[in-house]
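Continuing the series of single-chain predictions for the mutant panel. This is the parent chain; the variants come on the following pages.
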Amino acid sequence: MARVQADARVPVLAHLDGNNHTFVDRSANPAMASAIARNAKLRRTGICGAMETLLIDAWYPDPHGLVTPLLDAGCELRGDARACAIDPRILPATDADWDTEYLDAILAVKVVDGIDAALAHIAAHGSGHTDAVIASDAVVAERFLAEVDSAIVMVNASSQFADGGEFGLGAEIGIATGRLHARGPVAVEGLTTYKWLVRGTGQIRP
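Parent structure:
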C-alpha cells in the first residue's frame, strides 16, 4: 500500500499506518486521563485505532497515574528522558519509536511543553489516522480539533473508537488517511460513485 500511495498518479483511498497519539493536557481530569490512556493502548493492541504514542503535558499534575497502570498491566513503555524520570521501568526511546506503529503492548511516551509542542510532535510523526486530546480546557480542546490534520480527531475519548461501525457506518472497509475523496472510516457508501439524472421540460441557461 505504501508503494501505491507513493507512485499513484491519481488519488487513492489509503488505509496504511495508524501511528496514533493521545495528548494529556495539564487541564485533564486525572481519573479520566488514566482510564482513557489504558483503554486506548491495551483494549486491543493490534487494531489500527490503538494509541501508539502518549504525549504528557509537562505541567500535568499526575504523570504517575498515567504510566503506572500501563506498566502494571504489562505494557512496555519507551520514553524520552523526562518520561523515563517518571518511572524507572520506562525504557529509553529511540528516534524510530516516535514513528512506529507497534500493534503490540508497547507504547512510546514523551513529555511535552504544552499544546504547541504536542501539535508539533503530531505534525512531525503522526500518520493522519487518529489523534486524541484529553483536556478540560475547552480552548485547548478546540485548538486540537482545528489544528491536528488527521482523519479522526477526538476529545476526551479513547482512540479505539476509530471504527466505522462505532460511527454508524456499518461494516468498515478501512480508515482512509488521505484527503480525497473519502476520509476516515470508509464503508460501502464511501465507495459509491454518483450518476446525476436530469429530467428537463425545455430549460435553458440564461
